[in-house]
Design brief:
With 188 residues, this protein is mainly α. The protein contains ten helices and no strands.
Amino acid sequence: MIEALTHRLSQCPREFLDAPRIGNQGVIRTAAVVADFLADMGGTLPSIKDCREFEEAGPRDESWLRLVLVSAWLLHHRWFQDRPELKENIWKLLEKKLKPLAVVVSADQCVLEPDRREELVRFCLDALGILPAGETPAQAADRLKALDSIERVRVMKAAKEAEEHARKVREAMQAKQAQEAAAKAMRE
């Protein structure tokens, strides 16, 4: 399943990577793509009100909208379409769960880079509660964790903060040593 979905992602049509419509800019209306995709899963269409968040997104949401478009392509696979019970979870994934990932990973990366393709596939499967074929829950969680860009960015930020704190401590210690040396020289 992972291999088939990562291959599908690598075949994402260029149009899904075009600029999403934000205000008067961009090409693709994300709300229309999402509505068409969910309609193909059967049942009722999302209402205009439901899709408002995609339509009213601002420039800061461009990365998220692009990731929604690529994810809609990925999940518009017969395997998912044959499981209409996933429709609500797919909606939640597209509407909310992709936002944190979109902050640290671009849609282009998810199509062009093998690790990011696998990460997006595993991220989506995890959000939908689907265990990859042949993997235990622990194996699936470990593999997703190994690819997790959100966690990688968090760790890098924490390391940078720790490094900055250590630098400040060193500078304070050096200043104190210089002060003590100056005081000792004045006493002598």
